[in-house]
Amino acid sequence: MISLDDIRSAATVIAPHVVRTPLLPFGSGWLKPESLQPIGAFKLRGALNALARLENRSNGVVAYSSGNHAQAVAFAARLHGVPAAIVMPSNTPVVKIEATKALGAEVFIVGITERVERAEALVAERGAALIPPFDHPDVIAGQGTIGLEILEDLPSLDAVVVPMSGGGLISGVATAVKALKPEVRVIGAEPALAADIAASLKAGRLIRWDPVERAQTVADALRDEPSELTWEHISKLVDDVITVSEDEILAAVADLARRARLIAEPSGAVAVAAQAKLGGGVAVVSGGNIDPALLAQLSAR
Amino acid sequence: MPTPPSFADVQAAAERIRGHAHRTPVLTSRRVDAETGARVYFKCENFQRMGAFKFRGAFNALSRFDEDQRRAGVVTYSSGNHAQAIALAAGILGIPATIVMPHDAPEAKVAATLGYGASVVRYDRYTEDREEIGRAFAADKGLTLVPPYDHPDVIAGQGTIGLEICADLPDVATILVPVSGGGLISGVATAVKSLRPNVRVIGVEPELAADAAASLHEGKLVRWDAHDRARTIADGLRAEPSELTFAHIREYVDDIVTVTEDEIRAAVGEIARRTRVVSEPSGAVPVAAYLNRSLPAGPTVAVVSGGNIEPKLFAELVSG
């Protein structure tokens, strides 16, 4: 498992390149708007930390991702002057594919179950380094810097609500928060349609859901499942999970635009939907890369 | 004409609003920076309480009320953000508030004002004068009138934005500020020119309500018909400067530039796509100027003054 020192060290590495996002008051709680990062999502933190620590990156980097991790790796690679090849599943929103290309990465579109295989093939062909979206200690440590910042800004923190997919974000945040203030409750948020972690915690062991089933949720960044590494962090550090319906997720997107003047993608609004049920705490708004047409539709309803 | 607020008044306002108003962040957009080859920062007053900078001036003015004034209450006239700002600040300070709003004010704004605990008095904007109604209420019921901008304490409160920009961005060269009645730019310019006389303070107006620009260029207050000013989509920028705010503008403001309606509409969408925040048309006007006008070089701050936009209009502009 990663340590608080790993996260503190990541904070130093990434500080010049990320936005230190503010805490914004929201109802009886607070928001941590990672949607305000340069690529519009928290993923930049982990990708920057992992890339900075690669020993051999001269042959470039490879990543597979449905979106925000792709942009994060592309951004970090461009910053370090390294070529990036990104494998994206065919159901990725166009806005995310375009944004990744605009950052100078080479993009490969594949079927949703083939992306890991294709990424590994690219690594073998090119001698490039793979930066996985969450199953890597340096990635997790980078995401954990969010936990450090929340506690710095709000020493009286009592609960933090974090969206869960592969579990990299919550693993990092929980490590930071529990090391510094063990009594803070770390609560995961999942779409009910992709609630494999909620089921796993209830069962006390990692339960796998069919990827086609998980892909039903509108929260397109939350369709992944934990690895052994992230599950170890989650099972030891996460206090509870709140699941939310598709309607609650979409309503939270509209609510954030109206009341917080923040643009969130559905995945980024999941913790806010859960926060509404909890009645307080800090909700991590993990990303803001929403299709403009969907945003328009949700704002108008 | 009341005495214009000084730099010390702005500093005192900062102390009064501390812990009540949010200290809003400045954001950057690497995409905009890359495309324009310059650095621009967004001062996000759309994250302010009730979603606009107006809370600063309202809270500062109300917190200076004496005991009798607090007991009797405050009255103001506004169809927009100042109404909500006074209602919220009065609620926090336990002061009864009466807001004079037009019959055709958007229901969302009336509901928000009522939601903060204020009483709302409606008037017909085509046959009645809101300032007269406000003054009559103040005289008859012993209420204190706090107008939207023509008041030293309101101006001093808005000026705290200038203090924060100078503290957060030591190398700022230019600050772009929307201009309507001129309270915001008067306060910001007073603060900024006292701290950093070399920083340029540039006002931005819709072409369709460019009376302050015309006044600055002619060296005297030029009046535009209210119906003309009401043509702009930037509904927070339809007022006109007072003697007091124009005195500040003449003294401190380097220039006022104008933007078209299309540029304003596009800027709301651009801000949404590039920085992922919601702005109202009036709040997007400085960004419209930054994207479309040739302005002095150097790090620039666009004051995004508010984010209270009708959801349907936002939907239209964000998909456009």
Core attributes:
A: 301 residues; alpha/beta; six-stranded mixed beta sheet; 15% strand; B: 320 residues; globular
Structural summary, described in words:
The complex is a heterodimer of chains A (301) and B (320). Chain A is an alpha/beta fold and 301 residues long. Helix content of chain A is 48%, strand content 15%. Chain A is built from 13 helices and 10 strands. In chain A, helix 3 packs parallel to helix 4 and helix 11 crosses helix 12. Chain A is globular, with a radius of gyration of 17 Å. With 320 residues, chain B is α/β, with parallel strands linked by helices. Chain B has helices spanning 7-17, 30-36, 54-63, 67-72, 81-93, 107-115, 130-141, 152-168, 183-195, 211-218, 226-229, 243-252, 261-275, 281-292, 311-319; strands at 26-28, 40-44, 74-77, 97-102, 119-123, 144-145, 174-178, 200-206, 255-259, 300-304. In chain B, the strands form 2 sheets. A 6-stranded mixed sheet of chain B has the order 1-2-10-7-8-9, sandwiched between helices. Chain B has a 4-stranded parallel sheet with strand order 5-4-3-6, sandwiched between helices. In chain B, strand 3, helix 5 and strand 4 (97-102) form a beta-alpha-beta unit. The longest helix of chain B has 17 residues, at 152-168. The chains are: A alpha/beta (301), B alpha/beta (320). Chains A and B meet through helix 11 and helix 13 of A and helix 13 and helix 15 of B.
Quick description:
Chain A is an alpha/beta fold and 301 residues long. Chain A has helices spanning 4-14, 43-53, 68-80, 94-102, 115-126, 137-153, 168-180, 196-203, 211-214, 228-237, 246-260, 266-278, 292-300, and strands spanning 24-26, 29-33, 61-64, 84-89, 106-110, 129-130, 159-163, 185-191, 240-244, 282-285.
